[in-house]
Amino acid sequence: FAIEKCGFDKPYLDIGRNLTNCTNANMQEIILSPNGHCYIHFDTTGADAPDLEDLDMDGIPDYINNVATTADSSYALLVETMNFNDGANGIDNITDIYVIELSGSAYGWTRKMDDSCVDTCVEIDNNYDESNYYTHGLTAMQVTLIHEYFHTIQLGYQCSTGSDSYFYELTS
Predict the structure, then answer these.
(1) pLDDT for 13 beyond 60
(2) Which helix (H) or strand (E) holds 111?
(3) pLDDT at 15 > cutoff 50
(4) How far, in Å, CA of 48 to CA of 50, rounded?
(5) How crowded is the C-beta side of 121, counted as CA atoms within 13 Å?
(6) What backbone torsions phi and psi does residue 94 show, to the nearest 5 degrees?
(7) 0.85 cut: is pTM over it?
(8) Which among 23, 60, 81, 99 has most CB atoms closer than 10 A?
(9) 133 near 105, Cβ under 8 Å?
(10) Is 106 helix (H, G, I), strand (E, B) or coil?
């Protein structure tokens, strides 16, 4: 169950989206997190759009601002405090996070951009409102994002989980 919810068993989700990795996901907007560690990709219209409420009127939906600050906090904890190597974040060393509608099918997942694990990306749900989730809203996003961010770090150490995917899940 945990492996499914994290997205290790996700090929059936990709069929409908025609995706093999984040490189062919075209989102309408992109922002850089406040500390510059992550790009947050999101839509402002359509099924993948999060709630567009913008109480601080900075032109960025509050949910996306929360994703950005959570991403930077994840980096600070895992890399700066716990001293893990930076994740597999490509040549620019910036993690790409895609906010999409997962419809309760998975909390999120980390994808390898290629077989070398030089670059990875993270996909998370745009609201965590569906009844399929045990945890909802911002709490679900925050837990999911640090979990998936740690997967980018794990893949930077070893590219393939092999038969040890359970270990990656337990430690993430």
Answers:
(1) no
(2) strand 108-112
(3) no
(4) 6
(5) 20
(6) -125, 125
(7) yes
(8) 99
(9) no
(10) coil
